[in-house]
Amino acid sequence: MKSLTNRSKAVSNKKMSFLERIYLPAIIGGLFITLKHLFKRRATVKWPDEERPRSDVYRGRHVLKRDENGAERCTACGLCAVACPAEAITMTSMERKKGEEGLYREEKYASVYEINMLRCIFCGLCEEACPKEAIFLTKELVPTNYERENFIYGKDKLVEPVSKRVDVSKRQTLEVVSKKYNDR
Ligand code: SF4
Ligand code: SF4
């Protein structure tokens, strides 16, 4: 059979020499390789004490944004849930009542909004689909946990705190926004 690459080697059945039979040169060779790697730059990091720097447009855990006045931007239109290939997003919509204008930007809002982080594949399609610039992925990781239910992130974990805004300017550049709306 014709070989596809030139990497294959024919197996030799020749008798082993004395040095090969005592394995000493092979052991010393192996130790030398180990020693060489001791002085090389490590390819791994000591997670979780050490973290690799992540890009500003890294696709990590989500944030539900508020507008400049602190009102929730999400209008519970469901487009993110429809766009999600993993069916990770669920929500319940409610009509905004009189006097709640400061809480919710639009006439409809999500009273319940949940993302199942075990289903999510961090593709970013929810961010692309959102017409209200309400959902963004961030460079934060989803922390590990022993309980499955702790991976269902509700509004308590997703909506950004008024006092601690999440900066999404690096992923919401003018180019990104104009491409998003011109492609529709
Ligand atoms: S990042 Fe992708 S998989 Fe995760 S919730 Fe958004 S659309 Fe769904
Ligand atoms: S996050 Fe955006 S796309 Fe999803 S329901 Fe809210 S407004 Fe609609």
Structure description:
This protein has 184 residues and is of the alpha+beta class. It has a domain at 62-182: Alpha-Beta Plaits (2-Layer Sandwich). 23% of the residues lie in helices and 13% in strands. The chain is built from six helices and five strands, in the order H-H-E-H-E-E-H-E-E-H-H. It has helices at residues 18-22, 24-38, 79-83, 125-129, 155-158, 174-182; strands spanning 62-64, 89-95, 108-116, 135-137, 152-153. The strands form two sheets. A three-stranded antiparallel β-sheet has the order 2-3-5. The longest helix has 15 residues, at 24-38. The protein is elongated and about 95 Å long. The relative contact order is 0.16. The model has no long low-confidence stretch (mean pLDDT 93). It binds iron/sulfur cluster (2 copies). Residues 74-80, 91, 129-130, 132, 134-135 line the site of one iron/sulfur cluster (SF4).
Quick gist of this model?
The protein is α+β, with helices and mostly antiparallel strands. Helices cover 23% and strands 13% of the residues. It is elongated.
CATH class of the domain at 62-182: Alpha Beta
Q: What is the number of beta strands? A: 5
- Average pLDDT confidence is 93
Computed structural class: alpha+beta
Ends distance: 54 Å
Beta-strand fraction estimate: 5-15%
Continuous helix count = 6
Secondary-structure element order, N to C: HHEHEEHEEHH
Main β-sheet, in a few words?
3 strands, antiparallel
Helix fraction by DSSP (H/I, runs of at least 4)? 10-25%
